[in-house]
Design goal:
Number of domains: 4
CATH superfamily of the largest domain: Glycoside hydrolase/deacetylase
Radius of gyration: 32 Å
CATH architecture of the largest domain: Alpha-Beta Barrel
CATH topology of the largest domain: TIM Barrel
Strand content: 15-25%
Strand order of the largest sheet: 12-13-14-15-17-18-19-20-21
Number of helices: 25
Largest sheet: 9 strands, mixed, barrel
Helix content: 25-40%
CATH class of the largest domain: Alpha Beta
Structural class: alpha+beta
Shape: globular
Length: 778
């Protein structure tokens, strides 16, 4: 009996604790709010061109109305975008209250290791309060360049400050990021962790997340995700001057300072323009002043925390609404007049209508129809995508039980997402959706999966339309597929972009031929480096070979680091080949050097280069081994993902003893040696065609004809040298090989040709890299 009583007591305390984290509820009229006014707001919202996701209205600290447009829900987080800024400023407020910093502190004082060599007078004067008030003095807004850099703090501090700090407003999201970095610097905690015991725990806010930069600092100016009611709690806490449940959690003085005007956005704007704009009422500390003596947290596409002191009210909105002024106009037109100074008589009829309308809020679902005869024909089929990038490699469809399963293959993963017929099908995916700051480094990397709702319909027999809602963000993708025989037109649209691609039916072969498309000689020239990366990013190239002692090796390292998915191999070189550009051994290697200390141009005897070939001189195996080890070590130092070693001009297998040595050394470094006995060791055969005396078009056709010779179940490698036909490459040649620029440009044309890509799909050939098919022997 005692155990039962204890359990009941525990459960009642637990339930009370759970309820205690929610805001109190009331009815509109009991708090002096007209239900009819709120109904008019919902009706106007429904007729507008805006897409609302949630609303909540608080009066006298109580929720009087709330609703979520299905498939959005009360229990889901929502991307806040720049509403995040108000929480960042609050973290600064706590740090100020704890005397960890002041708003007059100079920004450079926090980051002595990230300062530019020359500190301008304006940078030296930049204060915390200038960041808070969006008056850092930089122009234009540096958010884009800063957010794509590796070190955001350093890049921000190196950005010129053209206006005296504190004198001119310019919206600057990375200024807010700097506030986050400062708080982390002085507290040792990310602001999301710093705010937890000070703000989130007291307010009962749980399950939030916040993006970080590449160095683990919360982005500050964006990236926070929390629920609508969490937004309401934050706004209510500000309305109560920092008090929560009778306790002062944030100093009232900070609330006052943070919510009052610090700078005018456009002081010279005509009064009529100011009177009609909620973006020209003055800026506070990471909050905006509004008309009607209100202020707000404000996030892109319509995320609002509107605090109305005169009405003792808070209004919350989430949406995907590019026209944010129209969105807030609905608040002033319908909700503001609904607030009355006194309690109103109960209005049961209006309240019932309001509750029903709020319950029935929903975004349109694609209409369910009879489907299409194509469903059975394309179900289980895959269409290869012909495009200039690898963001989408193929699309596949499977129809089963009124669900369309869409498979989207990228260069690294395949996403499979269900879409319901006439209903939302809920799932989670790792596929990134539309995002305003998608180019920022490390963006959304902390989120393992994204909650989505999908629905599909047929617009006629040949046009499939799928709607994919990312229901913890403001955004939606619409994917349209127009089928025409073995071809499909693909359109992927969101609020930010519309992308069109072409797909062709992929020939699915159970034991398809595999083809490694190898690009050689990275490092020998700048244009070669550019072409090799282009052929990977925009074409069919799957592996790149790098010459470690070459003059453009440092650039090659940077390019490979920027494209980490590329399979890279060391292209071992003991020759420098060209007349106008040379490179030297990494070691002393006297038997491999010419009289000037360079590598000999040739490996085998060449009548045009008498006594200038390795084989014409007294080369020593010990020198080659020493040089091989040095090149491996240099390559691994900067390209640790190196998977294999290949040979430039035959350098790893020109004699049996060289081959044996190279295999032994490669095994020691756990790298595969691919140009010695590729067929024997890895089952890889070389393929090619006669490249000579052909036009570009003929070379493309010859490459496609070569594909017909590839046999099922076998693996092949095609080796060539991409380049660009420019002045640099025209200056690179040797006797007997003068058309380097034109020839290597044609390789680039072949590797990036849509005609070639389509042929590969139709022939069912599987492109692979060395690292996918080789297993170095331990």
């Amino acid at each position: 009996m005692m155990k039962k009583t204890f359990l009941l007591l525990f459960l009642s305390v637990y339930v009370f604790a759970q309820k205690n984290t929610s805001l109190p509820r009331s009815t509109p009229e009991a708090e002096g709010v007209s239900s009819e006014g709120i109904i008019q707001f919902l009706e106007a919202a429904g007729k507008s061109k805006l897409e609302f996701h949630s609303y909540m209205i608080l009066r006298h600290g109580k929720v009087v109305a709330e609703g979520w447009w299905n498939p959005y829900r009360a229990d889901l987080k929502h991307t806040m975008y720049s509403c995040s800024k108000s929480f960042t400023a609050t973290a600064v407020g706590f740090a100020v209250a704890e005397k960890r910093l002041t708003v007059d502190d100079k920004v450079i004082s926090f980051f002595p290791d990230d300062l530019p060599k020359t500190i301008s007078a304006n940078l030296a004067e930049l204060r915390v309060k200038d960041l808070l008030s969006m008056s850092a003095g930089q122009a234009p807004d540096p958010t884009g360049p800063v957010a794509i850099s590796d070190n955001w703090v350093k890049t921000f501090l190196s950005t010129p400050i053209v206006n005296k700090p504190g004198t001119k407003f310019l919206y600057n999201s990375v200024a807010t990021y700097m506030l986050s970095a400062i708080v982390q610097k002085v507290t040792g905690d990310k602001i999301v962790d710093y705010l937890k015991p000070r703000l989130f725990d007291p307010l009962g806010i749980e399950g939030i997340d916040w993006e970080v930069d590449p160095h683990g600092i919360n982005t500050g100016g964006w990236g926070l995700r929390l629920k609508t009611e969490d937004m309401a709690k934050f706004g209510q806490m500000f309305l109560q001057k920092g008090k929560w449940k009778g306790k002062q959690i944030l100093p009232a003085a900070w609330v006052e300072e943070a919510s009052t005007m610090k700078i005018m956005q456009d002081p010279d704007a005509p009064q009529a323009k100011k009177d009609s704009s909620d973006w020209l009422q003055g800026y506070c500390y990471q909050m905006w002043r509004c008309r009607n003596n209100a202020y707000r947290g404000d996030g892109a596409n319509g995320q609002f925390i509107i605090v109305m002191p005169d009405q003792d009210a808070v209004v919350l909105l989430t949406a995907e609404a590019p026209d944010m002024q129209s969105e807030i106009n609905l608040v002033w037109k319908y909700i503001l007049p609904a607030f009355k100074p006194e309690k109103l008589p109960a209005n049961a009829k209006a309240l019932a209508v309001l509750k029903e309308k709020s319950k029935q809020l929903a975004l349109p679902i694609p209409q369910k129809n009879a489907g299409s005869a194509l469903e059975s024909k394309i179900s289980g089929r895959t269409f290869g995508v012909i495009a200039k990038d690898k963001s989408l490699a193929s699309v596949g469809f499977e129809f089963k039980n009124n669900i369309c399963y869409l498979s989207l293959e990228t260069d690294s993963v395949t996403h499979r997402i269900p879409f319901g017929a006439g209903k939302w099908e809920y799932s989670e995916t790792t596929k990134f959706g539309p995002y305003l700051v998608a180019r920022a480094k490390a963006n959304r990397s902390y989120i393992p999966t994204f909650k989505v709702a999908g629905s599909y319909t047929w617009n006629g027999d040949d046009n499939l339309e799928l709607t994919l809602r990312y229901i913890e963000s403001p955004h939606t993708e619409t994917l349209k597929f127009a089928f025409n025989g073995d071809n499909v037109g693909i359109e992927i649209a969101s609020i930010f972009s519309k992308i069109n691609k072409k797909g062709v039916l992929r020939n699915t072969i159970s034991n398809a031929p595999k083809l490694i498309v190898r690009g050689d000689d990275m490092g020998y020239s700048h244009s070669g480096n550019e072409a090799l990366i282009k052929c990977y990013k925009e074409g069919i190239e799957t592996s790149i070979e790098v010459i470690a002692p070459s003059p453009w090796f440092p650039e090659a390292v940077k390019l490979l680091d920027q494209n980490k998915s590329i399979d890279a191999g060391l292209h071992f070189a003991i020759t420098s080949e060209w007349d106008n550009v040379k490179w030297r051994p990494l070691t002393d290697a006297p038997s491999l050097r010419d009289k000037d200390g360079y590598f000999y141009p040739m490996l085998f005897h060449n009548n045009n280069y008498l006594q200038q070939a390795v084989m014409d001189n007294a080369w020593k195996l010990a020198d080659i081994e020493k040089e091989l080890r040095a090149q491996i070590q240099l390559a691994l130092k900067y390209i640790p993902r190196l998977s294999h070693i290949s040979g430039h001009m035959g350098s790893v297998a020109f004699t049996p003893e060289v081959k044996e040595m190279a295999k032994r050394v490669a095994k020691e470094y756990n790298l595969a040696l691919v140009d010695a006995d590729s067929q024997k060791d890895f089952g890889i055969s070389y393929t090619g065609f006669d490249f000579r005396n052909k036009t570009t078009a003929e070379r493309i056709d010859a490459f496609i004809s070569m594909l017909d010779k590839l046999e099922e179940g076998k693996t092949y490698v095609y080796v060539e040298h991409p380049g660009l036909d420019n002045d640099e490459l025209k200056a690179i040649h040797h006797i007997g090989y003068e058309d380097v620029a034109q020839g290597r440009q044609d390789v680039t044309h072949i590797f990036t040709s849509d005609k070639v890509k389509e042929a590969i799909e139709r022939k069912g050939i599987k492109l692979v890299s060395y690292k996918e098919v080789i297993q170095p022997k331990k």
